[in-house]
Design brief:
Number of strands: 6
Order of helices and strands: HHHHHHEHHEHEEEEHH
Helix content: 40-55%
Number of helices: 11
Shape: elongated
Strand content: 5-15%
Strand order of the largest sheet: 3-2-1-4-5-6
């Protein structure tokens, strides 16, 4: 039927959470007061903030106008809403690829900085094809879905030259041979090469006190809007916004203190490669 709204997706959950964060942090409006100013019912406002209705770029512009946010912040959020709707690989769902991954890809394309924390696995943005396939096989991704997952991951990796990226990687990750030792050695060589190109790769030594750093996450920071944290799940993920994201910003500060430098990490990787190749 013409004019019918699209069904809500993960994209709408992310946008709704951001709009709610802006209302709570930058205005004194209650949900009911904000709805009245927009000419919406309280139920519509609640569904919008909870991602239970499709949120158009026009909706975002209207809400932010009522909230009187700075023009640069408003334009950034409206642009984000539009970019997710524009034809791009992430707006055309790939068979077998979770909805949340498409939203994540669109956010990564807009971010000015990305910070990864990975404990037992090389981060997806740095994985080689063989390593990624071995991991996907290990977690039960079907053979027919595997190539689609890799295609999505490879396209996400194209963001790296355009963004400030730092990967904090637990020592266990660079010693866990998904796909066998030859696959791991090739993966470690890739990390060394990426480090030489200016990508921030920093290892976190074993037995280092790291209270609170219990699970992997990706912190995304934007030029004119609040940061988002993405927590990866087995076959998807979830987005966190203010105030939850503040905890991840604090965790990043801790990682900066306990991790090896990029040069030290590259040296460790080189020694691991030499050790494994010497055992062939």
């Amino acid at each position: 039927m013409p004019g019918q709204r699209k069904p809500p997706t993960a994209r709408d959950r992310a946008l709704g959470a951001q709009l709610k964060s802006v209302r709570n942090k930058q205005t004194t409006l209650s949900l009911e007061a904000a709805a009245a100013l927009l000419g919406w019912s309280s139920a519509t406002m609640s569904r919008t903030e909870n991602g239970k209705r499709h949120i158009s770029a026009e909706d975002v512009a209207s809400v932010l106008a009522v909230y009187r946010v700075p023009v640069t912040q408003r334009d950034a959020l409206v642009r984000r809403a539009k970019s997710i709707d524009e034809p791009g690989w992430w707006s055309r769902p790939l068979p077998g690829v979770p909805d949340e991954l498409s939203v994540l890809a669109s956010y990564e394309a807009e971010a000015r900085a990305l910070t990864d924390w990975s404990i037992t696995l090389i981060p997806g943005l740095l994985q080689t094809y063989e390593y990624a396939k071995a991991y996907m096989r290990d977690v039960g991704v079907s053979t027919e879905d595997m190539e689609m997952f890799w295609m999505a991951r490879l396209r996400r990796q194209q963001t790296l030259p355009k963004v400030e990226y730092t990967a904090f990687i637990g020592a266990a990750a660079v010693r866990t041979p998904f796909g066998g030792w030859d696959v791991l050695i090739a993966q470690l060589k890739h990390l060394v090469e990426m480090s030489k190109r200016g990508i921030g790769i920093r290892l976190v030594p074993e037995y280092t006190p790291r209270a609170g750093l219990y699970h992997p996450w990706l912190l995304l920071e934007f030029p004119d809007s609040s940061a988002i944290a993405h927590v990866e799940l087995l076959r998807g993920g979830m987005f966190l916004h203010d105030p939850e994201v503040d905890r991840y910003i604090a965790q990043r500060a801790k990682l900066h203190k306990i991790a090896l430098t990029t040069a030290e990490s590259r040296d460790i990787l080189g020694k691991l490669i030499e050790q494994r190749e010497g055992r062939r």
